Amino acid sequence: MTFDEIYAITLMQGFAGLSLFAVLLLMGLGLAIIFGQMGVINMAHGEFMTIGAYSVFLLSSLTDSIAPGLMQLYFPFAILCAFLFAFAAGWLAEWALIRHLYRRPLDTLLATWGLSLGMQQLFRSTFGPKEVSPTLPDWLMGSWEVTEGLDIPINGMFVLGLTIVVTGGVLLALYKSRWGLRVRATVANRSMANAIGINTSRTDRLTFAIGCGIAGVAGAAFTTIGSTGPTSGSLYIVDAFLVVTFGGAASLWGTVVSAFGIAQTQSISEFFLSGSMAKVLTLMLIVVILMMRPQGLFAAKVRR
Amino acid sequence: MSSKNDPRTVSLERRRLLQGLTALPLIALPGLSFGNQYPTSAVNTTGLAVTDTEVTVGQLHSATGTMAISETGSIQAEQLAIDQINASGGVLGRMIKVIKEDGASDWPTFAEKSRKLLVSDNVAAVFGCWTSASRKAVLPVFEKENGLLYYPTFYEGLEQSKNVIYTGQEATQQIIWGLDWAKSEKGAQKFFLVGSDYIWPRTSMKIARKHIESFQGGSVVGEEYYPLGNTNFNSLINKIKIAKPDCIFAAVVGGSNVAFYKQLKASGITGARQFLLTLSVTEDEMLGIGGENFDGFYSSMKYFQSLDNENNKAFVEAFKAKYGPKAVIGDVTQAAYLGPWLWKAAVEKAGSFDVDKVAAASPGIELSTAPEGYVKVHENHHLWSKARIGQGQPDGQFKLVAESPDLIQPDPFPKGYQ
Prior knowledge:
Helices cover 73% and strands 3% of the residues of chain A. Chain A is mainly α. Chain A has a two-stranded antiparallel sheet. The N and C termini of chain A lie far apart (58 Å). In chain B, the strands form three sheets. Chain B has a seven-stranded mixed β-sheet with strand order 7-6-8-9-10-14-15, sandwiched between helices. A five-stranded parallel β-sheet of chain B has the order 2-1-3-4-5, sandwiched between helices. A three-stranded antiparallel β-sheet of chain B has the order 11-12-13, covered by helices on one side. By secondary structure, chain B is α/β, with parallel strands linked by helices. Classes of the chains: A mainly alpha, B alpha/beta.
């Protein structure tokens, strides 16, 4: 192997780690808000991602049949729709189900799991059991060939960019906006937040819906790298919980750092070991670290 | 190899003539006439659900759960075959009635439902199962209760039962001819094997490695398995780029399949630049993968929807008429379609619905009306069938590029490959 090839592979492998980081972070972000900030164990998180993925599929089919000329442009709009649909579904789920269960965290686990099964069957009845693939615009496909033998996936760059924007937006909103202030006050001390005039149930609903909306965006982004089927959500849910728990449930920075750590460990060990062994190694590391630090990498400063 | 491929195709002309002749009485006398010829007491001595006008069969697939993605096509094809058989007068003058059970992608449920079908419903035959896991779960039930199962999926082999007819390819039929083609037509010497991490890909790759190293004098430059449901293949793709194989030989399944091809394309590995042969992409999988992501890669199957023969044209037309113009037909769907027809032929040859007699009559059964062409049941209850290579097209269909000249003998326990 020549020096150029080693250089190219190292760069591509570095980028593989980065794009896995983006995927994990995007998956975990919505959950970090819902699970981390509100303490709701949302087992249906994967299905909210699937809503996003199907939104892209719907929009792509619609565009294809109504205005084929706009195929190159529909994708950003589809991501927006994915957010809105998932946001609306999250709003509805919170109003109908979750808000009755805030005092019973373990029951939310069961209820949201039931919700996820119901949603899967709904997808199956609506879109059929087979996997579907939205037609992606040409600019999202293929690779950017920097030099001979060095290909950077365009969809990977797109997901990375989107992740940076969404994460930045969430951090900004959480630490600079009125909504963020109310969320943080509610997390810190619910009854005191109530007492100083924060409508905590309204805050909860908005927070849950925003978390779901971000899951929708994640699902939309994943149509560029993975599959869309009724049970696609279940492919992602374990990783999402892993990222959030490992990072320390109540800390958004923790989620970012943990996604980065898991992605790099996984992608580097995948390169040197076999795929299944890499997964084993990554999970073992996480288990050991969680045994030493049960609260996750970053513990939130919350008065208990 | 030569011993596997020896030409056994009987004179087609004579067979067609004979079949034409046997069909003549059917035209002259509508179904009823069989009633006298085959009284229920004679055709059913083991207490099956057979009446003077009706015979009950079971259908056992996953209509819900993860596997519904794959099994729906089989359910539809079996139903179509049964409808067609009923429309042409049924089996021994009896209409086929179907009891549908849902295995729900859960293997213990499969076992439980198969017991229900065999013990409570006394069905004469069952068309069903898709994954090897579900087949392994129901096999003891079928052997204990002496049922008859028609299993449609291409699978890893290493199994043979009096109570099962395997209508898909077993591993050697799908792999060996394909690898020989890769060597002779594409000059492939260095292979990179990729699969999902469970029994079918691992057994298939074991056979492939053995064939490449011992019989072809080629080399395997990498062998990798990824957990089911894995959606991130970038590191693997980099390893492939380092190994620079002549051929990527893939058996990735389910949701991973879609991610694998999307990411290959995104990393610049396209059909124009790299030769890839897979065992696990049919027209059904193409729906999820998207034709543009598989464009130019090759798939080794025994059937493609685009096969150009009269049987297949009629089949595709009937399938689309029943399930909509957008319906696609994959390899397994076609194999599932064969099940009811093979059963009908065996029952008529045996002159009985009794499982023992039907199983005994099955070897040697020929089907010249099969969409894939002509098939024949072997003594080991698998089918003689041709191997074919299709090249993926942007519209999600395959273009047939190669076809084995003769039927390939099924060999579920290949010597020298264990």
